[in-house]
């Protein structure tokens, strides 16, 4: 299951990515807002989406204007590993090596076609475990 959310700066890209995941990738996805161009605070969206990610052992996608604020906020939450990506290779490696459970994108920094390709790379990659597991565990220990 995938949970997606954005602030007003990421709204348009969120809607594009949402339709792509539903219609092309045929994955179950839940839209946590925002739903209009009215200004909202990206930490609130990050908190809401990440809470569902943790409860459901799911994947999250977060979008703000640059992806920076919303990824910083998400990474403050224990159990979240959020990767801000602007190309496909990093998106794949974020899953394969870092076991990222949330992908962040910038609605004002990348176009919709690139975003879809990044999302596909992220969703279709798997954590490789092995030596990477120890490193990811060390990241999570930093929050204790
Ligand atoms: C909102 O104007 C903007 O600051 C936000 O979307 C994001 O880019 C913050 O990092």
Structure summary:
By secondary structure, this protein is an alpha/beta fold. The chain contains 6 helices and 5 strands.
Q: In which range does the helix fraction lie? A: 40-55%
Shape: globular
CATH architecture: 3-Layer(aba) Sandwich
Number of strands: 5
Structural class category: alpha/beta
CATH superfamily: Sugar-phosphate isomerase, RpiB/LacA/LacB
* CATH-derived topology: Ribose 5-phosphate Isomerase B, Chain: A
Q: What average pLDDT do the residues reach?
A: 98
- Helix tally? 6
End-to-end distance? 27 Å
How would you spell out the order of helices and strands? EHEHEHEHEHH
CATH class: Alpha Beta
Q: How many structural domains in the coordinates?
A: 1
Main sheet, how many strands, which sense, barrel? Answer: 5 strands, parallel
- Report Rg: 14 Å
The low-confidence parts are: none
Strand content: 15-25%
Q: What compounds are bound to the protein?
A: D-ribose
Structural features, described:
- There is one protein chain.
- The chain is α/β, with parallel strands linked by helices and 144 residues long.
- It has one domain (2-141): Sugar-phosphate isomerase, RpiB/LacA/LacB (Ribose 5-phosphate Isomerase B, Chain: A, 3-Layer(aba) Sandwich), CATH 3.40.1400.10.
- The chain has helices at 11-23, 42-56, 68-74, 88-96, 112-123, 131-141, and strands at 2-6, 29-31, 59-64, 82-84, 102-106.
- Strands 2-1-3-5-4 form a five-stranded parallel sheet, sandwiched between helices.
- D-ribose binds next to helix 3.
- D-ribose (RB5) is lined by residues 7, 9, 42, 64-66, 68-69.
């Amino acid at each position: 299951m995938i949970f997606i959310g954005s602030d007003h700066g990421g709204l348009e890209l969120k809607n594009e990515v949402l339709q792509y995941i539903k219609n092309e990738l045929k994955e179950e996805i839940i839209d946590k807002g925002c739903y209009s161009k009215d200004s909202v605070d990206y930490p609130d969206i990050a908190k809401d989406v990440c809470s569902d990610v943790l409860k459901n052992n799911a994947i999250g996608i977060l979008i703000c204007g640059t992806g920076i604020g919303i990824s910083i906020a998400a990474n403050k939450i224990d159990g979240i590993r959020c990767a801000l990506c602007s190309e496909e290779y990093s998106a794949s490696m974020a899953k394969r090596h870092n076991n990222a459970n949330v992908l962040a994108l910038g609605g004002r920094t990348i176009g919709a076609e690139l975003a879809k390709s990044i999302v596909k790379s992220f969703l279709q990659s798997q954590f490789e475990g092995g030596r990477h597991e120890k490193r990811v565990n060390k990241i999570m220990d930093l929050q204790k």
